[in-house]
TrEMBL record:
Residues annotated as signal peptide: 1-21
The protein's name: Uncharacterized protein
Keywords: Signal
Keyword Signal: yes
Superkingdom of this protein's organism: Eukaryota
Organism in which the protein naturally occurs: Durusdinium trenchii
Length: 459
């Protein structure tokens, strides 16, 4: 092993590009890199790249990694879902100028050796390149999560792209990647940046990435949907990266057992991990209380089934990865159980415990927020969100919110809605004419116009 660590040896260089044949020893080379990285990690000198595949149970896995992974040091201060503040809602690789040596240095300066990449792809070019680019990745171990592709997609629609579920026709539009036909396709409790990432550092320019072999594209760093279509060759390369370079692929549907493979690959404190294996983190739970989203049966089971079949056909590469990942997880956990009696005991234990949810903040209802009686949020004829807020005159007098907007200011009069602008947001910053007819996009859903979906209420 020492000669690998000192010289970065590989049998032959690897290049990934259009029309390039995959070398016969690709799987061997990637597995060798994984072994080298694992050795660095076990010595306490490695780095961890957690590729968080969105809406696939990654937050629960982050919780487990943070509290039970041996040698793992995530940046705790101002972090969210294992992402340091500096890279939140951003592709960390882009932020670092695609220099992964710089990325590793910055992570160490922040006091960590592990992080989550949620709004960017895996650095496949570096993993499959030749020379220094590949050698720079020799200290990185990789972990990821995976979930049934349709379940992952449906969950994302429920929490982040609710307009796609307004009708079965809207669902078909989103599966086909034609989100622009819906107008604002993101949920009223969400924002385009929270779905795709901050402008300039996004996972992709289009939400269609989530319905077009999302897993495969993230593994290959093929997030430009205007590029050439994915091929069987691409799928084989993605599968090699997923199964040979990843130290663990955690299947969310079998989270408690699947995560046990970490005990034998990177090291897991089983005592600390035991309760976390049965803890499910649902960061978007509070959003559900704000919206009335139809179920599959309400949209029409037969119609949804037809759309799902089109989704499955379109995402055949992702389904291939998912089914192979389930088999791989079982094999790795079984092998680990043979090596570790504690893992064997956990693996053999009946998984009948009720999945616990992490403590969640108390969520205010629409009535609580706006002073209504049986208030509701509905989609208007033009696709915008309309708040219906029945209330008495007494409720109106006590509420901070007025549906009537504001009158033109007279000399000496205060800025419209000054009492309800949140800290850091003012009329001039959000509503000045230089931002155009729709105002400053960074001010959406931050003021008294909380649910208008366009301009703040007092612009």
């Amino acid at each position: 092993m020492s000669m690998y660590l000192s010289h970065g040896w590989l049998p032959m260089p690897l290049i990934l590009g259009a029309g390039t044949a995959v070398p016969m020893n690709l799987s061997y080379a990637l597995q060798l890199d994984r072994d080298v990285a694992t050795e660095w990690w076990r010595r306490g000198r490695g780095m961890l790249w957690f590729q968080h595949l969105r809406r696939g149970g990654g937050t629960s896995l982050c919780n487990l990694l943070r509290h039970a992974l041996v040698h793992g040091e995530f940046v705790e201060e101002r972090s969210e879902a294992c992402q340091p503040e500096e890279w939140k809602l951003r592709d960390a690789s882009v932020v670092s100028g695609h220099n992964l040596t710089t990325l590793a240095t910055e992570l160490r300066l922040l006091g960590g050796n592990a992080f989550s990449q949620e709004y960017g792809a895996l650095p496949s070019r570096e993993l499959l390149a030749r020379g220094a680019a590949r050698r720079s990745m020799r200290r990185w171990v990789f972990v990821t999560n995976i979930r049934d592709p349709w379940s992952r997609f449906w969950s994302q629609l429920r929490h982040e792209m609710a307009p796609c579920l307004s009708t079965v026709q809207a669902l078909a539009v989103c599966v086909a990647g034609q989100h622009q036909r819906l107008g604002p396709w993101w949920s009223p409790t969400s924002h385009i940046d929270s779905v795709l990432g901050v402008s300039g550092f996004r996972i992709s320019a289009s939400p269609h990435i989530y319905s077009d072999n999302y897993y495969t594209r993230m593994l290959l760093n093929r997030t430009d949907l205007n590029g050439p279509p994915l091929t069987e060759h691409d799928y084989e390369v993605a599968k090699s990266i997923l199964f040979q370079r990843m130290s663990a692929v955690i299947v969310v549907e079998d989270f408690a057992r699947s995560a046990l493979q970490l005990a034998c690959t990177l090291g897991l404190n089983l005592e600390a991990a035991r309760p976390l294996l049965f803890t499910q983190i649902r960061p978007y739970q509070e959003h559900e209380a704000m919206m009335d989203i139809p179920t599959e049966s309400e949209l029409g089971v037969q119609d949804v089934t037809a759309v799902r079949l089109r989704f499955i056909e379109r995402n055949r590469f992702d389904y291939g990865l998912y089914h192979e990942a389930k088999k791989l997880s079982e094999i790795r956990v079984a092998k680990c159980a043979r090596q570790n009696p504690d893992v064997a005991a956990l693996r053999a234990a009946p998984m009948v415990q009720e999945v616990k949810k992490a403590p969640e903040p108390v969520v205010a209802s629409l009535d609580d927020i706006f002073g209504c009686t049986n208030g509701s949020l509905e989609v208007g004829p033009d696709g915008s969100y309309v708040l219906y807020c029945p209330r008495t005159s007494e409720q109106a007098s006590r509420s901070w919110w007025s549906p009537l907007g504001s009158h033109k200011r007279r000399a000496g009069q205060k800025v419209p809605g000054e009492h309800c602008w949140r800290e850091g947001f003012k009329w001039g910053f959000c509503c000045d004419h230089r931002y155009g007819p729709y105002g400053n996009k960074d001010c959406h859903v931050v003021s008294c116009g909380l649910l208008t979906g366009s301009l703040p209420r007092f612009c």
